Amino acid sequence: MEGNMLEQLKEKVFQANLDLPKHGLVKYTWGNVSEVDRETGLFVIKPSGVDYASLKASDMIVCDLEGHVVEGELNPSSDTPTHAVLYKAYPEIGGIVHTHSTWATIWAQAGLDLPAMGTTHADTFYGSVPCARYLTQEELDQGYEAQTGQVIIDTFAARDLDPSAVPGILLHGHGPFTWGKDAKTAVMHAVVLEEVAKMNLFTRELNHFAEPLPQHILDKHYLRKHGKHAYYGQK
Amino acid sequence: MEGNMLEQLKEKVFQANLDLPKHGLVKYTWGNVSEVDRETGLFVIKPSGVDYASLKASDMIVCDLEGHVVEGELNPSSDTPTHAVLYKAYPEIGGIVHTHSTWATIWAQAGLDLPAMGTTHADTFYGSVPCARYLTQEELDQGYEAQTGQVIIDTFAARDLDPSAVPGILLHGHGPFTWGKDAKTAVMHAVVLEEVAKMNLFTRELNHFAEPLPQHILDKHYLRKHGKHAYYGQK
Amino acid sequence: MEGNMLEQLKEKVFQANLDLPKHGLVKYTWGNVSEVDRETGLFVIKPSGVDYASLKASDMIVCDLEGHVVEGELNPSSDTPTHAVLYKAYPEIGGIVHTHSTWATIWAQAGLDLPAMGTTHADTFYGSVPCARYLTQEELDQGYEAQTGQVIIDTFAARDLDPSAVPGILLHGHGPFTWGKDAKTAVMHAVVLEEVAKMNLFTRELNHFAEPLPQHILDKHYLRKHGKHAYYGQK
Amino acid sequence: MEGNMLEQLKEKVFQANLDLPKHGLVKYTWGNVSEVDRETGLFVIKPSGVDYASLKASDMIVCDLEGHVVEGELNPSSDTPTHAVLYKAYPEIGGIVHTHSTWATIWAQAGLDLPAMGTTHADTFYGSVPCARYLTQEELDQGYEAQTGQVIIDTFAARDLDPSAVPGILLHGHGPFTWGKDAKTAVMHAVVLEEVAKMNLFTRELNHFAEPLPQHILDKHYLRKHGKHAYYGQK
After folding, report:
1. What is the least distance, in Å, from the CA of B116 to any CA of chain C?
2. Looking at the domain assignment, is residue B126 inside a domain?
3. What domain range is C160 assigned to?
4. What ipTM was assigned to the predicted interfaces of this complex?
5. Smallest CA–CA separation between C59 and chain B, in Å?
6. Is any Cβ of chain D less than 8 angstroms from the Cβ of C229?
7. How many CB atoms lie within 10 A of CB A160?
8. Residue D232 falls in the annotated catalytic set
9. What is the reported pTM?
10. pLDDT tens readout for residues A86-126
11. Do the domain assignments include residue D232?
């Protein structure tokens, strides 16, 4: 990657990080966004615990897919090993977001999968968003953040889920991770997840017998926006 | 319609679309507003999936009542056929809004009619706002968006409801449509629907035995603002 | 009242009306504020259904205590007779506010008195805020708005409540009225009522057995701010 | 303390007070922040009931650890004796915040300890945030605000809690107090407490059987940010 491309990626990741508080997904410095450059195998991520008010694009940290810092003077986000593990396992994703956004975190704390109750959900997530189990003490000892990435991968494998069709997960007792083709799309998926987490909670409060979307409606909405027969938006 | 009138209508529809995020009814590009010119039988609607930040009045799309694009270079909203079907069936309406606004969508996802629990509701909607059924696979195959319009019309007919007196509906698992004499009024109805959806949900949570408004209070409030004996507002 | 004082009162009432959307208590033109001048027996109130964006201090309407317009070219708020009846019955109050604010309206729609669950409530309202009954058809026929004022007065009398100590009420199926020594204070009471309505609803959701404040804490907080032994704020 | 240091402390406390409405923790003048200078044994606190719009850094009040005013022309916050008692008992704390923030107050009104349901909580509070009992009539007679401080101290002592590890408390029927190494940190703890109070309430609504975090996850998250093995943020 040329220096110029690297600066552009830092700027994109910086802007995507600023989008988190703009969309009400984080307070203070909670949350982080990264984006990978697949040619060089390097990704750019926010530094750890730096105030958004003083954050600059040039503060962004460059890491390789082992999670080692390649460039940057600050510590990278403490969640960097989770990002690295996901980029390595899923070559189809380009950007990752982690937040403690209120309603997605509520589902994570409740330890429940988020079912697809409406078309707002189905437009982005092709079925339930899974909730991954707690890590064991042994996994913590092996490295909390990298093992978090491994548990995400195990959860998708055990349920035979496609990370492109379900671009996010809830971590029990923690909060959501989302991903997408780039940082900006991953942020949009975090916004959608937060909104449907809120709507689906109150849907069940309003009607305890409310059912997930019928399969044919789920298919219709997801496929209206995704895949070769999509017709939403501009070409 | 002269070019000048068309430009004015585009401007009105553009402004009404901007009002959706201003009132907190949509995130990103979710939602759409249209307004019809009854003399020419043409309506103007937002293009599909275009960022509000870059949207211009001149991007608005002109369609006829069959939903065909008459003018404009972008794809119209994917919900255009629903708008067309409603304009054709209901000559008394002039503007239509579709959103996934949080609280109205919660009632839609719960599959419940929204009862008139208070005067905020009664000032605008003369009784319950109905929730329309899911479309069948057959209806999806015939054209999802046009059939959505048909199900709205069928729901109003089956319940003998007047679309002028109840200017909105919930679509099961999806979200609300509202309408009015023009785009601006349809947006106001979307704001009212969202607010009463929130209030009525928590009214029932607070008091599971809370009843809808008595008929004489419903009549009083609706008729204070509508019809020939109205005395609210300025002449 | 000299013309100059009248202009000042219009300005105060105009500003107090603008405070309603600023505090998130009203959408569009819902809600109204008035303030009375006791020397002349005239009060100033917002015109009915005029957009806040175009509203001017000079649009405010002057009425006498029978609710007749004394000065102003627009129609006064449709709730003007309620304000007039309250000013006439309660010489100790100087300003009145009516809104459909979300959480206070939820209690009104639920038809429940708002109990004093915490000190935020006790700092302003010395005990439960009552919920007044629906009007009968006969009362509607006699004049909805004036009879609304009468039902408020009857509710306070039947429960032996002091309108200075409990400066507000909920109207079943409708929303809150608050009052105070002037328009600005009445708005503050509307803000407090809205906030405690929200807090008290969720307090009961969180703990169905939560009790109102013990009497000695209610006394302490109310009397810390009110009466001759008050010591909160500046002299 | 030199005059210059005193002015700097007033400025810090003034800014920290302004942060309360900025973070949505207070309305009007509800709430107060202070910070202590341990060398001189003086603390600076907001004056009582002064509008934020007209508040200036020079209005801040200087008090000694008995709660007596040492400098300033306005009355100090009515809660000043609570601050004084806490600074005297806990030499390790440098700043204190009191608010009636919505969700923390709901738990306080419910009279319930706030359990650690997620890592957002565990990052700041090492276990449940306790809810202190109501004061008795006798304690009110001895001085409400100072006795409030005493009940906080008694609650921490009775449960063998470390005020550095659990930097906050709920007061039954009232609201939260938080503290930290300085005023700014105490405000951040108030923001975290408010957010987890909201999340934990809805976690239990969503899943009545949701359990607090397992001990090994609580330990991991708290100790990732606190103590000698912390690795979050910059050095």
Report:
1. 9
2. yes
3. 1-226
4. 0.94
5. 12
6. no
7. 6
8. yes
9. 0.96
10. 999 999 999 999 999 999 999 999 999 999 999 999 999 99
11. no
